[in-house]
Specification:
CATH class of the largest domain: Alpha Beta
Helix content: 25-40%
CATH architecture of the largest domain: 3-Layer(aba) Sandwich
Distance between the termini: 58 Å
Shape: globular
Oligomer: single chain
């Protein structure tokens, strides 16, 4: 079937599903494959549950004209998404970076939604499947789409940009994330900059943090850019006022008090202001949007429990975000500060060194009590309490209850340190 013919079917059934447990009536089911599953085997089930069509790439599962046989289901999904993106008049803003992508995306979405019909990546569906699925939610009246792009190796952002074809782009930062896949920090910079490469090659617009020396240097000669800075008056001025614990900042004499914890969230807020200004959102609406944003999903959440003031930042972690979280926690005013730090994943051969560096930084900051959790942290040279697994930490907490304190919980997603809350 030609892509144009398939697109006509999509327009009649513009809801896409990839999981038969979430089938919606009259949707199109795409039978994706994974290391532990084969979606083709569920095509019949999808149709029985109400899907209008099932897209498959194994002929043995073709049972009627409602099963559309293609060479590669994933490739077809990506091609359909790109075609749909190009048929729409929607402006696409793409984001990538080592840290802060999802929070930045949600802040920009809040701001732009004050004036425009806007869609954005749901959760962190930011890979070779999530980006196409988000693009396919663009409707005829969608004015702006905000597309988050994640990557853990070279050429991934380049590929995602070729699908989304963004009109605007922003890189949150270049940090020590996915070092194993990228091959070190230089590889991270090169990989994330693939978004810049696409935007510049196609003469599209770039948003930038002009106080980030890598971004500023990388875009020094590029004309189509709009940046913010605290000090450089060539760029739009946004001033950080502090974070104890919530971020406060100022732009155009508007003082903004956010519900976001940690100085590292300032630049996430600042870019939302900048994008709002570019798209002519009134400054009072920008202020209202950012002040009303409340973080969820274990991202810099402030939780009060049994006398504890808990900063839960357990969605993810890498050396850059870990250091930022520790620096910010160090500024919090409290008589008693307790740390729970979990392993940072995907660091490859640098894992031992990076975990030791974080442990050393925590020692220098002299918090009242520090708990290190995970295979890597359990091996560092430190006087801190070390636990090889969550189960051993759990046993300790059940027998030795903490007195009320300010607590930071930070670790990679795979550590699931939000489980600590149950034992505090």
């Amino acid at each position: 079937m030609e892509l144009t013919d398939f697109y006509r079917i999509f327009l009649q059934h513009p809801v896409v599903c990839t999981d038969t447990r979430k089938i919606k009536k009259n949707c199109i089911y795409f039978a994706l494959k994974g290391s532990n599953f084969n979606g083709n085997a569920f095509a019949k089930d999808a149709l029985q549950k109400g899907a209008a069509y099932a897209v498959i790439d194994e002929e043995s599962h073709k049972i009627s004209d409602k099963t559309i046989l293609v060479d590669d289901v994933l490739k077809t999904l990506q091609e359909l998404a790109n075609y749909h993106r190009n048929q729409s008049k929607t402006k696409v803003v793409s984001l990538t970076g080592s840290n802060g992508k999802t929070t930045t995306k949600e802040l920009i979405h809040k701001v732009l939604s004050k004036k425009y019909n806007t869609i954005a990546t749901v959760g962190n569906l930011n890979n070779h499947i999530g980006v196409p699925l988000t693009l396919l939610t663009i409707k005829e009246d969608t004015e702006i789409g905000i597309i988050e792009m994640g990557a853990n190796h070279q050429k991934e952002i380049e590929f995602l940009a070729s699908i989304a074809e963004p009109d605007f782009g922003y890189i949150t930062n270049f940090g020590k994330a996915h070092l194993e896949g990228f091959g070190g920090i230089d590889g991270v910079i090169k990989g994330k900059s693939e978004l810049y490469d696409y935007l510049q090659a196609n003469e599209k617009y770039v948003f930038l943090n002009a106080d980030d020396p890598i971004q500023k240097e990388r875009l020094s000669t590029y004309i189509n850019k709009f940046g913010f800075s605290e000090t450089d008056h060539e760029y739009y001025n946004i001033k950080f006022l502090g974070a104890n614990p919530f971020v406060k900042f100022k732009f155009e004499n508007e003082e903004v008090s956010t519900q976001l914890i940690g100085a590292y969230n300032f630049t996430n807020c600042a870019i939302a202001v900048l994008v709002g200004k570019y798209f002519n959102i009134p400054k009072t609406a920008i202020k209202d949007a950012i002040e009303s944003y409340h973080p969820e999903n274990n991202r810099s959440q402030l939780i009060e429990k049994n006398g504890h003031h808990i900063i839960l930042d357990a969605y993810n972690a890498n050396p850059t975000s870990m250091k930022a979280a520790l620096d910010s926690f160090g500024e919090v005013e409290s008589k008693s500060k307790v740390l729970f730090l979990g392993d940072m994943f995907e660091l490859g051969e640098t894992a031992a060194k990076e975990h030791q560096a974080i442990a050393h930084l925590a020692e220098e900051m002299e918090f009242n009590n520090t708990f290190l959790v995970g295979e890597n942290f359990s091996k560092v040279a430190s006087t801190f309490k070390k636990f090889k697994s969550f189960e051993t930490l759990k046993a300790h907490l059940e027998n030795d209850k903490l007195s009320p304190a300010s607590i930071l919980i930070k670790g990679s997603r795979g550590m699931a340190l939000e489980r600590i809350l149950e034992y505090l």
